[in-house]
């Protein structure tokens, strides 16, 4: 399993968190997504490391901006 945390800008509420979770959860191999608007952090658990471009596209589809990965 792979766990990666991303910084996403623009999330301000529970609806924002839900939108981001829904889009990222649709990516193949994703088993869990936790989004926190208060910190702007999204943690993704997947079978293997995800292609960052795919995560960026999912976040864009939700209406937000992927700033990048955070350091562990």
UniProtKB/TrEMBL annotation:
InterPro entries: HMA_dom, HMA_dom_sf. Pfam families: HMA (PF00403). It comes from the Bacteria. Residues 2-67 form the HMA domain. Gene3D superfamilies: 3.30.70.100. This is Heavy-metal-associated domain-containing protein. It comes from Streptomyces cheonanensis. The lineage of its organism: Bacteria, Bacillati, Actinomycetota, Actinomycetes, Kitasatosporales.
């Amino acid at each position: 399993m792979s766990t990666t945390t991303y910084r996403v800008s623009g999330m301000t509420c529970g609806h924002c968190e839900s939108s981001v979770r829904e889009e990222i959860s649709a990516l193949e191999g994703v088993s869990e997504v936790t989004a926190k608007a208060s910190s702007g952090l999204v943690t993704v658990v997947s079978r293997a490391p995800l292609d960052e471009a795919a995560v960026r596209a999912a976040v864009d589809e939700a209406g937000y901006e992927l700033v990048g990965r955070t350091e562990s």
